[in-house]
Structure formats: C-alpha cells, structure tokens
Amino acid sequence: MKSLTDREYQQYSRTMLLNDIGEAGQIAIMNSQVAIIGMGGLGLLVAQYLAAAGVKHLLFIDNDVVEISNLPRQLLYTPTDIGKPKVTVAKRTFSRIHSDIHIDAMNIKLTDDTIKANLQLITSKLADVDVVFDCTDNLPSRHVINQLCVQHQLILISGAISGYQGQVFCLNFADQTSVILSGCYHCLYPSHTHIEQNCTQQGVLGPAVGVIASMQALMGLQHISSTLNQYGVLHCFNAKSFLWQQAQMSRDHQCHVCKPMHISAQDQGAEYVTN
Amino acid sequence: MSLINATPSITVTTDLIRLELNGTTVMLESDLSLSGLLVVNNIDVASVAIVVNDTVIPRSGWQHIQCQANDRINVFSAVAGG
Ligand SMILES: [Zn+2]
C-alpha cells in the first residue's frame, strides 16, 4: 500500500494529525505485520489497539482456552466462548469487526520443544514480522520468545503484570548497538529467576492490565511509524500508587542468549571498558 | 567491647552510609554488596531486578558491586503475568 483512500484518510485522521507520524507513518502502520504471543488480558487489548489503528496483518499465538475467570479483563471474550481456544475466538471476533484484516492463528504454546518441532513454520511466520509482543503469563515462555527474537533480530515489546506491579519495555535486536547497551530479557531476568506470585495466585485488576497493554501498543505503533525514541528502557508501573519508574536496561556480559549473535570480540572489549 | 586498663581504646565500628532504598532513606554498612543488601532485607535474590541510579544492574554483578553513599536503589519483583 502506498496511499490512502478517502475513507481511510478520514478514519485515521487523528493519528495522521500527529506531525511526526503523518500519512507516511499511517501507511507504515497499515503495511506492518505483528505477532502477539499470549491472547489473555494484555494480548487482546494490544490486538484491539493495533487493529483499530490500521494494522492489517496479525499473528496470534496461544494455546489456552477461554475461562470464566478471564472475562473481567479479557474484554472481547464472552460467556459463550468459555472452553474454546482463545486464538480461534479472537480470530473470529477480529475478522468480524475488521473486514479487511488478515489474522493468522496458531494454537500452540511456545516452548523449546514446540519450537524445535515447528521450527520451519515458526521461522517463516516470524520472517516478515515488524514487532513481537510478549503478552504471555509465565517466565519459561518469556525466555523462549526472547531467544526467538534475538535469533531473528526482531523487535520485542514485553509487557507483564501481576498484583499491582506492571513492567514493560521495548528491545531492538535488529540494532547491534542497542543490544550491546541494553541486552535482552535474559539479561534482566536470568533463567533461574523465581517468580514469587503470578496473576492466578496474586490477582490483578483489569484496568491495571489495560495500562500495560496500552503502553505495549503505544510503543509498537511508535516503532512501526519510526517515532519511538526509547529502546531498552524498563518502565515499572505501580498500580497502587500510580507511579511510573524508568531504568536504562543493561546487557549482562555473561548472558549467553544475546552474546553469540551480536557481540564481536571488539564490541565485547568495549563493553567491559564501559562497565 | 570491654577493654583492659591502659591499652588504647579499640572499638570495632562499621561505617554507615546513607542511601535511598525503594524511595526510603536507610543507613547501611558501607561494605555491603547489592547481594548483601538483598540478604539483609530478606529479599529472594532470584526473584528481583535491581536498579541503581536509574540503571538496571545485571544479576551477575550483584556480588561484586558495593552500595555507595547516596545511591538510589530500587528493587523490583520479577513479574510475568499477562
Ligand atoms: Zn542477554
């Protein structure tokens, strides 16, 4: 797509009124492809914002079914969807709301084993993806997704929330300088990280999930329209005090996940000097 | 420490430094590492990220990096829910 129809001009006029985005940014959004992994509270909202903003190609990955306890924060699912695969329901619903949208749904949990078993398929599906949104609910999936993004030099926008604590960041694995500076998910939370409590145990308020999902969608649209200024910044949100805190992420020089692909001997030396 | 008569007064003191931990001013022993800071505060080393003066410190460095006076240290629990 190189230009907009009159109707699209009207539809996306508020986005294009932002000077730095403009028509070129909107066209980039409409030509983009995204992968959303985890179609729970975060993933559904990210998908809704992106589809409404004009993203036409979305890949949904999840292997969960809709449960009654999902309904307070996973707003597109209804009681009649209980027991059905989330990706099936989401694909059907999004296709109904947005007539010209292309949704690819994979009913699969990404693990080392399933990736190995479906490597060609997953690689081909991620090949043209502009952004991967990690909206999953467990640490092992997050490590696997991080590794995939590092290997394929993708953009990872990771969001997480449990209780009153939310965290969100965007890492650009296509940019070696950014990787050397900010590292990867594994640099922040190594494999042996212990999650004290998840949403199932600790609970969460739907709108708090919405805050983090909105940030993920916001970062994604800004990246796609080339207006994102911050990569490698960890944003922590306290949903009780409503305070945000930011921190520059750092590469762990011992990290084996983001090292082999990107760190040349020369860069490694430079990194030790700056640390 | 009790001392005998005329010997010079020897007292074992640990220097304390003032820093900010999760927004609260605290006094800590000056030779405390980031790992030690977590231990002193009963925080599971494997369940958090540490930010010192607005920069994330990777876990592999926590044993070797000492808390400095006036540091602003924030400890965030790892969260993975979605
Ligand atoms: Zn890493």
TrEMBL record, chain A:
<dbReference type="GO" id="GO:0005737">
    <property type="term" value="C:cytoplasm"/>
</dbReference>
<dbReference type="GO" id="GO:0016779">
    <property type="term" value="F:nucleotidyltransferase activity"/>
</dbReference>
<dbReference type="InterPro" id="IPR035985">
    <property type="entry name" value="Ubiquitin-activating_enz"/>
</dbReference>
<dbReference type="Pfam" id="PF00899">
    <property type="entry name" value="ThiF"/>
</dbReference>
<comment type="similarity">
    <text>Belongs to the HesA/MoeB/ThiF family.</text>
</comment>
<dbReference type="InterPro" id="IPR045886">
    <property type="entry name" value="ThiF/MoeB/HesA"/>
</dbReference>
<protein>
    <submittedName>
        <fullName>HesA/MoeB/ThiF family protein</fullName>
    </submittedName>
</protein>
<dbReference type="InterPro" id="IPR000594">
    <property type="entry name" value="ThiF_NAD_FAD-bd"/>
</dbReference>
<feature type="domain" description="THIF-type NAD/FAD binding fold">
    <location>
        <begin position="12"/>
        <end position="256"/>
    </location>
</feature>
<dbReference type="GO" id="GO:0008641">
    <property type="term" value="F:ubiquitin-like modifier activating enzyme activity"/>
</dbReference>
<dbReference type="GO" id="GO:0004792">
    <property type="term" value="F:thiosulfate-cyanide sulfurtransferase activity"/>
</dbReference>
Automatic annotation (TrEMBL), chain B:
<dbReference type="InterPro" id="IPR010035">
    <property type="entry name" value="Thi_S"/>
</dbReference>
<dbReference type="InterPro" id="IPR003749">
    <property type="entry name" value="ThiS/MoaD-like"/>
</dbReference>
<dbReference type="InterPro" id="IPR016155">
    <property type="entry name" value="Mopterin_synth/thiamin_S_b"/>
</dbReference>
<protein>
    <submittedName>
        <fullName>Sulfur carrier protein ThiS</fullName>
    </submittedName>
</protein>
<dbReference type="Pfam" id="PF02597">
    <property type="entry name" value="ThiS"/>
</dbReference>
<dbReference type="InterPro" id="IPR012675">
    <property type="entry name" value="Beta-grasp_dom_sf"/>
</dbReference>
